[in-house]
Amino acid sequence: DADVTQTPRNRITKTGKRIMLECSQTKGHDRMYWYRQDPGLGLRLIYYSFDVKDINKGEISDGYSVSRQAQAKFSLSLESAIPNQTALYFCATSDPGEDGELFFGEGSRLTVL
Amino acid sequence: LAKTTQPISMDSYEGQEVNITCSHNNIATNDYITWYQQFPSQGPRFIIQGYKTKVTNEVASLFIPADRKSSTLSLPRVSLSDTAVYYCLVGGVPGFQKLVFGTGTRLLVSP
After folding, report:
1. Any residues with CB less than 8 A from the CB of B2 and at least 6 apart, and which?
2. Helix (H, G, I), strand (E, B) or coil at A41
3. List of chain A residues whose C-beta atoms are within 8 Å of the C-beta of residue B97
4. In which element (H, E) is residue A69 found?
5. pLDDT over 70 (residue A1)
6. Given CB atoms, is A58 within the 8 Å cutoff of chain B?
7. What integer pLDDT is reported at residue A28 of this predicted model?
């Protein structure tokens, strides 16, 4: 089983719908991240959390919200999806004791029609 | 966060050594340099990290000159499976920074 699991792996939705992408991890890391990747581009940081009570905005947080339900779970929500939020979304975890190395999930491909 | 500049793409052949240079002119004193590899439709994977001089692991070497304004990822004897996008990231003390990815360098290895 993967250490960082994202659900769903693929989702097609319509403009205006609420969407939640979920991430769970078994690595025991405190730090979790959500990134977005558009075709041919690098990853952009949406939100990050350094522990259960900590939530921080990244480069492109507008239109997104997150919830850190537990150490192992970090969810990304699109309250009202729009077509330019069509992208590949990655969840990642890290731990200071492992030199901050990021461990990524397999990605969630979201298409907003 | 220090901005990084990398070549958009590079081509190589199997068995050759590949060197990818990253420029980070405004790197801060406590910034580390980290490289990640990404295959299509997969999350990036950590390759190597360093602060100064040279770091080597089983996959690659990282060369950092004394002024630390650039760094070079060296991949010895590449194979077709090394075709991927390589990202250079610069950030604070490992584990205490939020890492920001640029657009990376797309490496294509041909037979």
Report:
1. B24, B25, B26, B27, B28, B31, B90, B91
2. coil
3. 100
4. strand A65-70
5. no
6. yes
7. 92
